[in-house]
Automatic annotation (TrEMBL):
GO terms for molecular function: hydrolase activity. This is Glycoside hydrolase family 13 protein. Belongs to the glycosyl hydrolase 13 family. Transmembrane segments: none annotated. The keyword Hydrolase applies. The keyword Hydrolase applies. Residues 25-416 form the Glycosyl hydrolase family 13 catalytic domain. It comes from the Bacteria. SMART domains: Aamy. Keywords: Hydrolase.
Length: 551
């Protein structure tokens, strides 16, 4: 496998690689099945590294690959120092990290600080009555016989955030806190052993060549020690965005700095100033941009999201991130083909109509929009193939969000269906023997990599071209340009411009010296159709990127 010397494969690359990287999210369970048992694994990822290198990404972010009962897709971790046998071995993870790095691709792993699995050694000891109980939030219940939860907190997955245990002597006992599923007990971050353990885990993986860590539910780990009832509108919140969290991340940053590693936080916060605190120079390096990811396909709202994102990051000097979808949200081509093109977990429902042709056209334009913006871009596996959201049959759904909603929420499995690699192979090339852990729908093979890789009009080809050309935009700021209503137009370095038409009619292109790339055919050669984006050169080139014809 050749090193991509043109794509930052050298070890002496600038330490600020993460400020403008394209990072590909790998949901291991659904990426590629190397051993044929129906579950994606690290062997499958290793086999596909040449594909990822050709795509041109700078890093891979892996969903959790640790030992887990898989009650929440691996986000219920039983042991952070062991790879789950379904995915492979620790030795194979080390090989993957090293092989990817030789191709110029760094590795980012997931850390889930808020909770562990109920099968974690600590929690099993806690249930047996050991001192490890102090590492979690165990409390007596309310009511005459302790039959009511200690407070009114609810789980992110629906239902109460508390489960009562049966003590070793067989009688009902204390309750334990779980902001997610009951199989995911929350850790008590006020305990020094919890903090020390996570710093040790970070070192464990940094020693194995990991270049970064994505912090799951980064604003949730710290809790008010009194565990009071949640009263909406009263601050501070008892478990979201607690001030004491910042000491944790400062300690983590000190560890990361020893290895030149980086963090990206999953931080969902509406307050821009509070959000920016996580990105101060001595805390996390970057955070996911949920505003942009959930924004409807609307020019004014997208521009507002972009402006607010850049403004949020500016005071702390952190780079913005741009995400169209991930392992938790409806896939882009499906969302953009619906009447409501935004995303809200509360609005998810079975049977929502979608125009996939429209959604695909908009997703192509959104790809060029996101890749032209300053900062880091995250690309979820299959996004480059234009995969739609799958409505998984109820009997096959595994996501706990579905069960805990009483069956009304379709859950997140629809964006986790195993990838199609080869149209004519069993299971579209995901694996040769075992039935995939989630069923692939009829027609899935039409999206296969081998059908798209040599097609100049495919979404895969568009992404490859766009990622290759993206460095021409440089690392400078964005300047908005005058444009017709419904059109986003901005300039970056060397007179390079991005235009995205979200209006109802086509618009004239401004004067330009060349077209780098277009998300779809232009009208009459010089008009930008609706739901189409284009990258233009408006002055003589100062870079070596080749000219691209409109796609």
């Amino acid at each position: 496998m050749p090193v991509r010397s043109d794509h930052h494969g050298d070890d002496h690359r600038d330490d600020d690689w993460w400020r403008s990287a394209v990072i590909h999210q790998v949901y291991v369970r659904s990426f590629a099945d190397g051993d044929g048992d129906g579950t994606g694994d690290l062997a499958g990822v290793r086999e596909k590294l040449p594909y990822l290198a050709e795509l041109g990404v700078d890093a891979l972010w892996f969903s959790p690959w640790y030992l887990s009962p898989m009650k929440d897709g691996g986000y219920d971790v039983a042991d952070y120092r062991t790879v789950d046998p379904a995915f492979g071995t620790l030795a194979e993870a080390e090989k993957l990290i090293a092989e990817a790095r030789r191709l110029g691709i760094r590795t980012i792993i997931d850390i889930v600080p808020n909770h562990v699995s109920d099968q974690h050694a600590w929690f099993r000891a806690a249930l047996a009555g050991g001192p490890e109980r102090d590492l979690f939030h165990f409390r007596p219940g309310r009511g005459e016989h302790g039959e009511l939860p200690p407070n009114n907190w609810t789980s992110e997955f629906g239902g109460p955030a508390w489960t009562r245990v049966t003590e070793p002597d067989g009688i009902p006992g204390d309750w334990y806190l779980h902001l997610f599923a009951p199989e995911q007990p929350d850790l008590d971050w006020a305990h020094p052993a919890v903090r020390q353990e996570h710093e040790d885990i970070l070192r464990f993986w940094f020693e194995r060549g990991v270049a970064g860590v994505r912090v799951d539910s980064a604003a949730l780990p710290a809790k008010d020690p009194l565990l009071p009832d949640l009263v909406e509108g009263r601050g501070p919140h008892p478990y979201v965005d607690r001030d004491e969290l910042h000491d944790v991340y400062r300690a983590w940053r000190a560890v990361a700095d020893e290895y030149g590693a980086v963090f990206v936080g999953e931080v969902w916060l509406p307050d821009a100033e509070r959000f920016a605190r996580y990105l101060r120079p001595d805390e996390l390096h970057t955070a996911f941009n949920f505003s942009f990811m959930t924004c409807p396909w609307d020019a004014a709202r997208l521009r507002t999201s972009i402006d607010e994102t850049l403004a949020e990051h500016a005071p702390v000097g952190a780079p913005a991130t741009w995400v169209l979808c991930n392992h938790d949200v409806t896939r882009t081509v499906t969302r953009y083909g619906r009447a409501d093109t935004g995303f809200d977990f509360a609005a998810k429902a079975f049977g929502t109509p979608t125009d996939l042709a429209l959604g695909t056209r908009r997703a192509r334009a959104a790809a060029l929009l996101s890749l032209a913006l300053p900062g880091t871009v995250y690309l979820y596996q299959g996004e480059e193939l234009g995969l739609p959201e799958v409505e998984v049959a109820r009997e096959h759904i595994q996501d706990p969000m579905h069960a805990r909603s009483g069956g009304t929420d379709p859950g997140r499995d629809g964006c986790r269906v195993p990838l199609p690699w080869a149209a004519k192979e069993p299971y579209a090339g995901f694996g040769s023997r075992g039935t995939p852990w989630l069923p692939q729908p009829d027609g899935w093979a039409m999206y296969a990599v081998d059908r798209q890789q040599d097609d100049p009009g495919s979404l895969l080809t568009l992404y490859r071209r766009a990622i290759r050309l993206r460095p021409a935009f440089g690392t400078g700021p964005l300047t908005w340009l005058p444009a017709p209503e419904g059109v986003l137009a901005f300039e970056r370095a060397d007179g390079l411009r991005c235009l995205v038409n979200l209006a109802d009619t086509s618009v004239d292109l401004p004067v330009h010296t060349g077209i780098l790339l277009a998300s779809g055919p232009l009208d009459s050669g010089n008009r930008l159709p609706k739901d189409t984006a284009v990258w233009l050169r408006t002055r003589p080139a100062r870079f070596s990127a080749p000219e691209e014809s409109p796609s």
